[in-house]
Amino acid sequence: MRRTLLGLAVALCTLACQPSAAASFQPEGACVADGRGPGIYPELEAKLPGGLGGEGDPSRDSGRSCSDQRLSTLKTHGVTDLRYAGATWTPEGGSQTVIAVFTTPTGQPPLQAGWLEEFYKAGAEASTKTENITISQPTMPDAGAVWRLDTLNDLSFQSVVVWPGDGLVHVVIVATQLQPGGLTRADHDSAVRAAVHAAVVPGPG
Fold this sequence. Notes:
Blueprint: H1 9-16, E1 35-37, H2 42-45, E2 59-65, H3 68-71, E3 82-89, E4 96-103, H4 113-126, E5 130-136, E6 139-140, E7 144-145, E8 147-153, E9 156-165, E10 168-177, H5 185-200
Antiparallel strand pairs: 1-2, 2-3, 3-4, 4-10, 5-8, 6-7, 8-9, 9-10
Helix pairs in contact: 1-4
């Protein structure tokens, strides 16, 4: 499993370690298998920003989760089908940014931001590699009031920001790989602000 954004192990599996769509995967109808891939839910992918400063073009895909492993704490709220799209930027140096949107389809409980907050918190606490977990509820430009989780995984600052909007739940995940004489916590916080801005005020695709 790749060492970027994965210090939150279980919590990040929905986007970072879920397999691509298998033969049994179907984008509609009963959810019987987890799966993801480019263009599966184009209407969700269209909600993602096309750019993130000078970081170049992202990889983007979408999918759905229905297994107990992927849904984790969401199962306790009656969710059996979670749909999402994500754009990932991986610049040189081991850092990474994911901007994602989540929703549930008709027939499922409407997805609440608090449920994803619980999901990411549980995943961070379950990981043996995360430390100094802090949770705050700051007000950020463009997004307004958000929920934010910050943690340290070895030499990587990692943050998850969650907020509702436009009938979706928005998530930004930023991991900044620290290097001697290189990136700092201030650089990481700047990257988080830039990612939230891009999620709310999308640039050209």
